[in-house]
Amino acid sequence: MLCGKHLAKLLRSSGSRQLSTDALEKFRKINYEKIGIVGVPFEKGQRKKGVGLGPKAIREAGLLDSIQEISNKLDIRDYGDIQYEALNLQGRLATNMKQLEHVASCTKLLSQRVTRVLNEDRLCLTLGGDHAIAIGSIDGHLKHCSDVGVIWVDAHADLNTNSTSPSGNIHGMPVALLAKELADYWPYIPGMDWQEPIISIKNMVYIGLRSVDPYERVIIEKFGIHAFGMREVERYGIKDVMKMALERIDPDGKKSLHVSYDIDSLDVLEAPSTGTGVRGGLTLREGIYIMEEAYNTGRLAAVDLVEVNPSVGTPEDVKKTLDAAIHLLVAACGHSRIGDIADTIDLIKK
């Protein structure tokens, strides 16, 4: 059940809209008073060292305290980091999928951990690590609840297969691995038997795209994938983009929502410490708004925050990037930029 302050925030955020009893019942499906944090210090999905330090750096920058400041009533549990042993694939490798044994091993355990957190009635925050970890986090969400809508916030589409990827880095493949419409585009992948592509590409939407490979563009067009690049953000504004994104993937307002957020969706001036930064991205204000609106649906169940690399840039760059990451994560947990509602009004005299 939602506490009074969170219900008040949802009512306030609805503006002039009247929330029906059915709508309020939907809001109660996600217990925003309980939050679970999972760290994934994983960097084998790409080449640059340091992104595996992301979870530790985000925690040390004050994530838990920043979330707790929203309300003393929040029950926050840190489930620690995913630790794994790489599978021995005995030479059975898929062509052009680098470090597959590591990706398969780590994401399988992450899937199990995310399912556990959600089964314990908590909003699940997954800290990466590179974006390959979304294979596990979204799979874990789907194992908890099959009716999931995914908001993929990223400069890149991450939609390559092993036959189209120019690099073979698996952090550029997770959407293609997850989407059931693309299952026939893949060979048998050793070590990935636990993962079945069951989410429809129609239940996924991109926000922030501005660096898309030619093959990825073909797939986006062929399957009519919902995609709002930076041109659309500039044309419509982030408010309408977010509204349209939710309407496209969840027109009935019933899906459990998963936001998979690559820090490189932000402009490099906002978040310079990342491995694949691209100029012309989202402002931090726009990035926070995406998280706020996802939270205000009452159906946000899981969030990934990935590709923070504390080894990239100056100490000032790292601090700026970590600050941005925490701003995004506390927004996903219900922090309001106009001030959080007090847990008690006992100090307010009549």
TrEMBL record:
Catalytic activity, reaction form: L-arginine + H2O = urea + L-ornithine
Keywords: Arginine metabolism, Hydrolase, Manganese, Metal-binding, Urea cycle
Pathway: Nitrogen metabolism; urea cycle; L-ornithine and urea from L-arginine: step 1/1
Cofactor binding note of this UniProt entry: Binds 2 manganese ions per subunit.
A Pfam match: Arginase
Needed co-factor(s): Mn(2+)
Known EC number: 3.5.3.1
Family membership noted in the UniProt record: Belongs to the arginase family.
Protein name, UniProt field: Arginase
Organism: Aedes albopictus
Lineage: Eukaryota, Metazoa, Ecdysozoa, Arthropoda, Hexapoda
